């Protein structure tokens, strides 16, 4: 009825217990139903409602006045509740700034008065019941004036639209992190404080804190600087690790994309569509040959003497800037006086329609015309350099290879090396200087390498370190090109005659085939290559030294002339040496193939990647074989493993303490308590360990069985063992299995009555075999403790030691105690210990009490286990006696508590084994398969792992032979293309 009235009239009311007046709820009123028809308030039902509204006197009221009063009250209540909702939404937004919100909340007025106005649930429920009494009469009697209805609907629609707009604005403000409406007043307060005191609020707080602690402002600033520096370093380290992680994933995806692209090209070439084969540029083919040679022989002990341009120079001499000018792009990370080049960077320059760059092991191209992508390229170069530096080193020998293409670029291969330093700073490794010298000598020792010697023209020539190294490697200067950088600064600082002598080759003792002067910028990091080239061109046009003297030839200046000269010399040396390198590799290939045929005549040359793929398939096949193991075999393995883990606890912590108590009642009570604690804590975890070990055992057995196959190749053994060990180390049983097993085990242990003869016999057999196992272990312990028996001494020529003979004498005294009292408790009394010790003293043996107790423990244990074994024999035929007497009197004439205990243990082991077996077959085998695949995927990307696990002469010889074949093929392909270009 309340819902009908609410839909009819559009308002809600609350009632009182005595008068039950109708109270308007201003948040739900519908004006279109209050006044209408021709009767107005003269209608008897309407007059009844108006006489019971809050704020109205119970008297006759005119229709017009009634309508005006209702509209006024509704408007007031609606505005209150709308602003209340709006304030709540704004309050939600202000929680985004906790400190400002606390200050704002203290200034809010108390809103508890709303609790007395708004109806609660109980009052609303009473009101709805009261309205049912008048609902029928009111529903059919009220008529609505169409004119008032139209006006009310228009007003209501207008108010609703206004409120929805304000509510949407409030919600948007609540969801915005920085709300200017909220932060404005506080910003004004902050500005006011700043104007009054001349400092910000934060500075005032810091100042008061420093004064309170008695710390000077200088010390506080130093402490803050150190703290900020530490935070920055931590953030940089974290960012670097994250970048390395994502870079590894990106490289993996790029390799997969590259493989897919190659497969697509192969499929596309197989189609008879008449498309032309993709043609590589000559310089790209040459760069690939160099990459193959570098990977084949990093020490240059073989025939890797192909030409390349090696850029060497002192640190901060402008070496990298020269290379960037030749490449026409700022592609290297830059710094101020610090070492930025930490690893060799091989740059292959090639002419192309677009100015782009990419790394040789990646498919992504960087648009060098966009500053954003240039910045990303520089970050990637820096990241790769830092990633290549390992083991606390400062520089690395790992080469970073990249290709730069663009209009007007000269085709050549350049290698940028770390700058030569004179002093090792505290943030460098101690061997940094020697490492750079060794690396530079290594690259320059190539007899066909073109040495691009960079000398800073703004410093004294006597301070140069690179010229001595160049002279040692190329004393005649037949492959050295000297480049003087920063000549714009040199013109201001140095004498003109000195610069002319340098460019004429008359100042340095070193010799060169060419001397060049270049300007690599104005020392501004943000200058583009175009700006640098324009500046260089203007300088050489206006320079007094180079323009009017006539000493320096025009072809000796500018980066453009330098790149032309280097490229010309580069290709001349390539044509002179490439044929010799190809012939040398033909001889190397022939020798390797002959050695392979002599050592492995019936095997194909398989590299590490191919061998790894084969081993991967065999390992995954063994995982699949886990699903072929029968359920019966799984139960046997799991049950055996489970009892091996539980037997010690069952005997030592449950059975022996309870059985040695001497009372059947205390036996059952103690067993129930210990089993309950065991099942609630340790048993589920032990069961999961048993399942884990059983799965591991079966998988390793499958691996071992595969080794016995006639087709087994032992070259995979190390790899398989490493993969399996790593997968098992990572693998863990499902977490929820422990809780599931706990419930099953607790319910099973609650059962104490054996109702089946077959189960009784199985329990007796289980009890008997367990006792025999423990008895045999005790016998072995006693044999080690007391030495061989008399029979063994005579027949097997065994003798007892003095210690064993001493133990044997003590055992003789203890045997007398057991013979005299077959039901002796597990511990010796003080009198018994004293008696044994004095008897041994009479025999000439001095022993202490602890020595007697140590001897007593195995003696009594064997005696007790023999008694338990007799009870097991008696229990074979005691089932019917147990059933009848247990049913009639609740007990049994013979002691069968041992059998009942082991029956309960056996039942809990059965249900546990069944649950573990189902979980292994349904889930755990697949989860182990998943871990093994993950390890294999990681190892497939780790070349160091492959080299570590796939070893032997067969592997190394095959790898070398395959690499030489590949290099020779690329050399022949390049030579054919080079001859066609001639």
Quick summary of this structure?
Its EC number is 3.6.5.5. This protein has 982 residues and is mostly helical.
Helicity, as a percent range: 55-70%
Lateral strand order in the biggest sheet: 4-3-5-2-6-1-7-8-9
Query: How many DSSP helices?
Result: 35
The geometry reads as elongated
Strand content: under 5%
The end-to-end span amounts to 102 Å
Average pLDDT confidence is 75
Oligomeric form of this entry? single chain
Tell me the Rg in angstroms: 47 Å
EC number: 3.6.5.5
Keywords: Apoptosis, Coiled coil, Disulfide bond, GTP-binding, Hydrolase, Lipid-binding, Membrane, Mitochondrion, Mitochondrion inner membrane, Nucleotide-binding, Transit peptide, Transmembrane, Transmembrane helix
Subcellular location: Mitochondrion inner membrane; Mitochondrion intermembrane space
Catalytic activity: GTP + H2O = GDP + phosphate + H(+)
């Amino acid at each position: 009825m309340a819902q009908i009235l609410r839909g009819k009239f559009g308002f809600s009311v609350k009632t009182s217990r005595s008068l039950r007046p109708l109270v308007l709820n201003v948040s739900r009123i519908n004006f279109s139903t209050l006044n209408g028809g021709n009767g107005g308030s003269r209608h008897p039902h309407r007059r009844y409602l108006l006489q019971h509204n809050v704020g109205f006197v119970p008297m006759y009221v005119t229709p017009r006045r009634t309508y005006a009063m209702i509209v006024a009250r509704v408007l007031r209540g609606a505005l209150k509740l709308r602003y209340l909702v709006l304030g709540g939404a704004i309050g939600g937004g202000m929680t985004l700034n906790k400190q400002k919100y606390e200050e704002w909340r203290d200034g809010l007025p108390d809103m508890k008065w709303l609790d007395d106005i708004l109806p609660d649930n109980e009052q609303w429920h009473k009101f709805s019941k009261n309205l049912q009494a008048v609902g029928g009469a009111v529903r059919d009697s009220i008529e609505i004036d169409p004119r008032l209805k139209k006006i009310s609907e228009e007003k209501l629609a207008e108010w609703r639209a206004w409120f929805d707009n304000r509510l949407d604005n409030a919600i948007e403000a609540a969801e915005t992190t920085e709300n200017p409406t909220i932060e404005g007043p506080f910003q004004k307060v902050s500005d006011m404080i700043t104007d009054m005191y001349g400092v910000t609020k934060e500075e005032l707080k810091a100042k008061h804190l420093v004064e309170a602690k008695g710390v000077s402002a200088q010390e506080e600033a130093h402490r803050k600087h150190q703290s900020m520096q530490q935070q920055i370093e931590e953030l940089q380290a974290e960012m670097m690790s994250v970048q390395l992680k994502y870079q590894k994933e990106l490289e993996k995806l790029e390799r997969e994309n590259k493989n897919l692209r190659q497969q697509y090209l192969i499929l596309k070439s197989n189609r008879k569509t008449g498309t032309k084969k993709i043609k590589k540029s000559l310089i790209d083919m040459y760069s690939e040959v160099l990459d193959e040679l570098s990977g084949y022989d990093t020490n240059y002990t073989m025939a890797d003497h192909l030409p390349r341009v090696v850029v060497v120079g002192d640190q901060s001499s402008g070496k990298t800037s020269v290379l960037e000018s030749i490449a026409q792009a700022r592609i290297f990370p830059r710094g101020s006086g610090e070492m930025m080049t930490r690893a060799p960077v091989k740059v292959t320059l090639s002419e192309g329609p677009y100015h782009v760059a990419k790394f040789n092991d990646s498919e992504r191209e960087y648009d060098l015309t966009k500053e954003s992508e240039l910045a990303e390229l520089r970050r990637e170069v820096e990241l790769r350099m830092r990633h290549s530096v390992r083991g606390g080193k400062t520089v690395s020998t790992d080469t970073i290879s990249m290709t730069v293409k663009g209009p007007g670029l000269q085709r050549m291969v350049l290698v940028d090396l770390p700058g030569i330093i004179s002093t090792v700073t505290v943030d460098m490794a101690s061997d940094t200087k020697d490492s750079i010298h060794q690396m530079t000598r290594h690259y320059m020792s190539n007899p066909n390498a073109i040495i691009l010697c960079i000398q800073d023209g703004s410093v004294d020539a006597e301070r140069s370190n690179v010229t001595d190294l160049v002279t040692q490697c190329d004393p005649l200067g037949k492959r050295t090109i000297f480049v003087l950088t920063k000549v714009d600064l040199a013109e201001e600082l140095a004498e003109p005659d000195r610069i002319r002598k340098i460019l004429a080759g008359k100042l340095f003792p070193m010799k060169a085939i060419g001397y060049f002067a270049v300007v690599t910028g104005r020392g501004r990091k943000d200058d583009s290559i175009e700006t640098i080239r324009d500046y260089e061109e203007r300088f050489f046009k206006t320079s007094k030294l180079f323009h009017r003297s006539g000493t320096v030839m025009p072809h000796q200046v500018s980066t453009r002339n330098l790149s032309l000269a280097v490229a010309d010399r580069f290709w001349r040396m390539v044509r002179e040496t490439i044929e010799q390198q190809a012939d040398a590799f033909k001889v190397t290939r022939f020798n390797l193939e002959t050695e392979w045929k002599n050592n492995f005549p019936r095997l194909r040359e398989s590299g590490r990647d191919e061998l790894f793929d084969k081993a991967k398939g065999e390992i995954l096949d063994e995982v699949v074989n886990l699903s072929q193991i029968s359920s019966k075999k799984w139960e046997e393995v799991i049950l055996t493993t489970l009892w091996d883990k539980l037997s010690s606890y069952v005997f030592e912590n449950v059975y022996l303490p309870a059985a040695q108590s001497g009372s059947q009642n205390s036996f059952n009570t103690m067993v129930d308590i210990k089993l309950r604690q065991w099942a609630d804590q340790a048993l589920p975890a032990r069961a999961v360990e048993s399942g884990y070990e059983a799965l591991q055992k079966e998988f390793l057995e499958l691996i071992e069985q595969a080794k016995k196959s006639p087709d087994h190749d032992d070259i995979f053994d190390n790899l398989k063992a490493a993969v399996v060990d790593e997968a098992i180390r990572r693998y863990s049983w499902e977490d929820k299995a422990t809780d599931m097993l706990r419930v099953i085990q607790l319910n099973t242990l609650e059962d104490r009555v054996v109702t089946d003869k077959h189960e009784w016999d199985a329990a007796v057999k289980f009890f008997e075999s367990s006792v025999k196992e423990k008895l045999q272990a005790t016998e072995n312990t006693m044999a080690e403790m007391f030495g061989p028996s008399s029979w063994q001494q005579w027949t097997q020529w065994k003798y007892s030691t003095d210690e064993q003979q001493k133990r044997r004498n003590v055992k003789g005294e203890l045997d007398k105690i057991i013979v005299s009292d077959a039901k002796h408790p597990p511990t010796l009394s003080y009198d018994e210990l004293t008696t044994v010790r004095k008897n041994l003293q009479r025999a000439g043996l001095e022993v202490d009490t602890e020595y007697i107790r140590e001897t007593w423990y195995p003696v009594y244990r064997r005696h007790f286990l023999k008694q338990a074994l007799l009870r097991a024999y008696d229990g074979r035929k005691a089932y019917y006696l147990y059933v009848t007497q247990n049913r009639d009197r609740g007990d049994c004439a013979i002691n069968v508590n041992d059998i009942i205990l082991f029956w309960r243990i056996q039942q809990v082991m059965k249900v546990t084994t069944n649950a573990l077996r189902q979980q292994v077959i349904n889930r755990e085998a697949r989860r182990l398969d998943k871990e093994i695949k993950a390890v294999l995927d990681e190892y497939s990307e780790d070349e160091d792992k492959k080299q570590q696990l796939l070893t032997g002469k067969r592997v190394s010889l095959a790898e070398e032979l395959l690499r030489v074949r590949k290099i020779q093929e690329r050399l022949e392909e390049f030579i054919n293309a080079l001859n066609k270009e001639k």
